[in-house]
Design goal:
The chain has 464 residues and is mainly alpha-helical. It has one domain: Growth Hormone, Chain: A (Up-down Bundle), CATH 1.20.1250.20. 71% of the residues lie in helices and 0% in strands. It contains 18 helices and no strands. The chain is globular. The two termini are 25 Å apart. The N terminus is likely disordered.
Length: 464
């Protein structure tokens, strides 16, 4: 088969102007998803300390940190699954539009939180919107680009750009930390804000910015043609969660859900805990020794933002590698193992050794850990649309992404935080790093074993 040819010998079509607009909007949407998710680790320590008035490592701090990671993910898993069902029932574009409105509003409103409970509720709404948007967007893109090679490239490269969301939020957080004192005080509608110039509040507020072009443009883009045609002809079957467990889909559903959970487990159980490991590094202890709390906290937050940007650069590299090789590696099992096998080696070293001893090496470790983990997220975006027919595409993708990823996978943050609990605040950063090493290795091992049972797609074209 010549490059640029399909199995039928037809050249890969060029993108039209409308298709370029669709791809650009998809890039913004995927980037915003990552932006919102990776915002939490950056704002969590100062937000809990301000709103709950507790110290890191204490039982009360651990309690709220676990809830902030797990409850929004749980809500996203349940309502995200419903969103996938609604995507199959009412169409991809309509659900996309409403999901953007939901998390754009919630992201902005969370900056005005007057209590930890209010912040938790609004973060639940944000995560629900993000979860629904991802599933609907992947199904929408896959069906707008039916040509196999063009579809693989579009899904690969648009998801590649999602890692820019992590870079943007790290940069936004750094800017807010530097200039928060000069910004107008946050407060409205008679709300009493404990620290109205807190940098974490402005970071949350920036979450609405990328949503503006999505809200203005996406409602005017075309619906999935295959979904629209089947709906108009009356041949579109009604979606059903039970149907994805029918004999022909059961193995796909169970294995992808398990493996999706392990991918997210590595991200939430280890990588997203990096900001909490920063205070325990020898270089940071040396820099903050003798400083008052605000000055010391700024050093820690600046370093955490830098690590987040570095990790997202690694994630960008992982998505780039996936986008480059997805059209050449036929076996999907071999493709995902390109990321799993290195992860088995990297995670124990990065989190068990480097994250407790050397800041400079940790930048490199965060980069590589992000590369092997985030690359898997792009894999699922390319793989899942090929495994379900039109009427089950959103539901099947949503079950793996939301029940596996958002619900089960993110619960590993709860596990890491629970096992890291200690009464010694100075030892807390070291303990959470060691626990993250064990959790990260474990989820990678389970995912690797499960890959031997991953079904291979039967064909290049999407099943109808």
């Amino acid at each position: 088969m010549k490059e640029g040819q399909t199995g039928a010998g037809k050249a890969t079509p060029r993108l039209t102007t409308l298709q370029w607009v669709i791809c650009i909007i998809a890039v913004i949407g995927f980037a915003f998803d990552t932006y919102e998710i990776l915002m939490l680790p950056l704002i969590l320590p100062p937000a809990i300390q301000e709103l709950a008035r507790v110290a890191p490592g204490s039982d009360a701090y651990t309690h709220w940190a676990r809830l902030m990671f797990f409850v929004p993910a749980f809500a996203a898993g349940i309502f995200g699954l419903l969103g996938g069902y609604l995507t199959d029932l009412f169409g991809r574009r309509r659900v996309l539009t409403f999901s953007i409105l939901l998390y754009g509003f919630s992201a902005f409103a969370s900056a005005f939180s007057t209590s930890i409970e209010m912040l938790l509720f609004l973060r639940c709404l944000v995560f629900i919107g993000v979860s629904v948007e991802f599933v609907a967007a992947v199904a929408w893109l896959a069906e707008l680009f039916p040509h196999p090679q063009l579809r693989e490239k579009v899904l690969g490269w648009t998801q590649f750009c999602s890692s820019f969301g992590g870079l943007m939020v790290g940069t936004a957080n750094a800017i807010c930390i530097a200039y928060a004192a000069n910004f107008p005080a946050i407060g409205a509608f008679g709300l009493t804000i404990p620290e109205p110039h807190a940098a974490w509040r402005y970071t949350l507020m920036t979450g609405v910015i990328p949503a503006i072009p999505l809200i203005l443009i996406r409602p005017f883009l075309p619906e999935s043609p295959i979904w629209r045609e089947k709906r108009a002809a009356g041949t579109l079957k009604r979606p059903s969660i039970a149907a994805i467990f029918a004999p022909e889909f059961r193995r796909t559903t169970l294995i992808t859900t398990l493996m999706f959970a392990m991918s997210y487990g590595a991200a939430f159980g280890a990588i997203q805990q990096l900001p909490q490991m920063v205070p325990g590094l020898p270089q940071i202890r040396s820099q903050t020794a003798g400083l008052e709390r605000p000055a010391a906290q700024r050093i820690v937050q600046d370093t955490a933002a830098d690590l987040t940007r570095t990790q997202e650069l690694g994630g960008l590299g992982g998505r780039f590698i996936l986008a480059m090789v997805v059209g050449f590696v036929v076996s999907q099992r071999k493709l995902i193992r390109m990321f799993q096998i290195p992860g088995l080696i990297i995670f124990p070293i990065v989190f068990g050794i480097v994250a407790t001893s050397n800041l400079n090496l940790l930048y490199f470790g965060a980069f590589v850990a992000g590369l092997v983990t985030v690359g898997q997220f792009s894999f699922w975006g390319n793989y899942l649309p090929r495994m379900y027919p039109v009427h089950l595409r959103g539901t099947g993708e949503s079950f793996a992404a939301n029940i596996g990823g958002r619900l089960i996978g993110t619960s590993f943050a709860y596990l890491t935080l629970t096992l890291s609990r200690t009464s010694d605040a100075s030892y807390y950063p070291t303990k959470i790093a060691l626990v993250a090493a064990a959790v990260g290795f474990s989820v990678y091992l389970v995912g690797f074993i499960a890959s031997f049972f991953l079904p291979e797609p039967r064909q290049e074209v999407l099943p109808e």
